[in-house]
């Protein structure tokens, strides 16, 4: 059996997200790298921050995420931006219809006064 993902910088929430996108072990993470792991999490609908990207890189380099050099952070961000640009555009979903409130009356209750004044309101 392979060891579950327990690496530096990878907390419970990040580990759960990674598991949900099929990255369950350190070997899985090493195989895809920080950018692809981050993109898988993003494509799955989660909203990872750039701190997660840096944490993934720090985990792979065995250093604290804040110790990832600024130049490497810029490379990672550029790679994520390039990968994001390659994604298909979001599916066009129609805007939700306006929300309306429906009031139901108890049987035998009197209709609201505004309904009595309308034609057909007192049937």
Automatic annotation (TrEMBL):
InterPro entries recorded: TfoX-like, TfoX_C
Stretches assigned to the TfoX C-terminal domain: 6-79
Disordered: annotated span: 85-123
Pfam families linked to this entry: TfoX_C
Name of the protein: TfoX/Sxy family protein
